[in-house]
Design brief:
Elements: H1 18-31, H2 56-60, H3 64-69, H4 73-79, H5 84-101, H6 113-119, H7 135-151, H8 156-170, E1 181-182, E2 187-188, E3 193-194, E4 197-198, H9 235-249, E5 253-254, H10 261-271, H11 274-292, E6 301-302
Antiparallel strand pairs: 1-2, 3-4, 5-6
Helix pairs in contact: 4-5, 4-7, 5-7, 8-10, 10-11
Length: 326
């Protein structure tokens, strides 16, 4: 392994810039802030979850990442010079959130419902991570774990988590599901995947209208009768659009999945194992080659054989969280 050069800073600055003084003043002030968690967290540290709202857990699944995002600044603040209590609170809260969402059931699974229920893999987190979510959202939640790992690299449990999640990402699935990554063609097998493998079942459903969609455009404008998201309020059109969506995107890698390389990088930082470095280089280089072969424009999709536009009629755009928002 290449030696990291050591730099020694042992001379004080001749003049401290004002921004640095203000930053230190802010850190001193923030260190004195009282804890204000009672309205938001239970005594065990879990988020107070409105389970009385019908279907709230299913609706909120794609927002579970926001629960982790709400606290990820704590280990970062500690890294910047904050009090050690922020690191302690950050770890305790992360552990509590993992416990909480590992027990809450969800629907609209990436594998058949009966199989998931029989295996006990029908919860919002499975094996302490997302079972079937896109990496735009997984990546947001993962920032919490990255910061904790940087702030306390000797924490055994977090190391185990990173290595386990990485195994699900790039290796054989420990639970026996289809592996997520194809090392021959350098693609993830879907835009939705996780500890339950590629989430192909999620692409077999109608796509119905929700109000959050209103500010976005459609992914595809060639589905008969569907010209705006409002058309998806019609069950028949929602079914028709969902069928096209699944046909094009279920088995399609998306450029957004490169966010997963940060988790693999964390595994490399923990272990120095070159299999992790090799994966990052091969996967990113495959996307670089697709970029070079597309006249210097980054494509947002690659099919099962690693070819751009393979499932999208030759189009280099249209994948999940790519150039358009499905």
């Amino acid at each position: 392994m290449k030696q990291i050069k050591t730099l020694t800073f042992d001379q004080p600055c001749a003049a401290m810039p004002r921004w640095a003084l203000l930053e230190r003043a802010y850190i001193d002030l923030a260190n004195k802030t009282p804890e204000m968690l009672t309205p938001y967290l239970s005594a065990e540290g879990s988020i107070i979850w409105p389970e009385s709202v019908e279907n709230f857990q299913t609706f909120a699944y794609s927002n579970v990442d926001n629960a982790f995002e709400g606290f990820q600044s704590w280990p970062l603040f500690y890294l910047l010079g904050g009090d050690e209590r922020f690191l302690k609170l950050a770890q305790e809260t992360f552990d509590a959130l993992v416990r909480q969402f590992s027990s809450l059931k969800k629907a609209n699974l990436g594998i058949p419902d009966d199989q998931a229920e029989a295996m006990g893999r029908d919860t919002m987190l499975v094996d302490e991570w997302f079972p079937d979510l896109d990496w735009m959202h997984q990546g947001e939640a993962a920032m919490y774990l990255y910061y904790l790992s940087l702030a306390n690299p000797g924490h055994i449990k977090n190391k185990e988590r990173v290595l386990r999640i990485t195994q699900y990402l790039i290796g054989e699935n420990p639970a026996g599901f289809e592996r997520n990554y194809d090392p021959e063609h350098h693609v993830f097998k879907s835009g939705y995947f996780g500890t339950n493998g590629p989430a192909w079942e999620k692409f077999k459903q109608p796509i119905t209208h929700s109000h959050w969609m209103d500010s976005y455009g459609l992914a595809f404008y060639d589905v008969p009768g569907v010209t705006t998201f409002y058309d998806l309020a019609d069950p028949e059109k929602a079914k028709r659009y969902g069928a096209v969506y699944g046909e094009r995107l279920a088995h399609c890698d998306t450029v957004t999945n490169m966010m997963a390389t940060s988790m693999v990088l964390s595994a490399y930082l923990y272990t120095g194992d070159e299999q992790y470095r090799d994966f990052i280089l091969s996967y990113v280089n495959a996307w670089r080659e697709r970029y070079a072969g597309n006249n210097g424009i980054m494509p947002d999709n690659a099919g099962p054989d690693g070819k751009v536009g393979e499932t999208l009629g030759g189009r280099w755009y249209g994948s999940h969280y790519g150039w358009v928002h499905p």
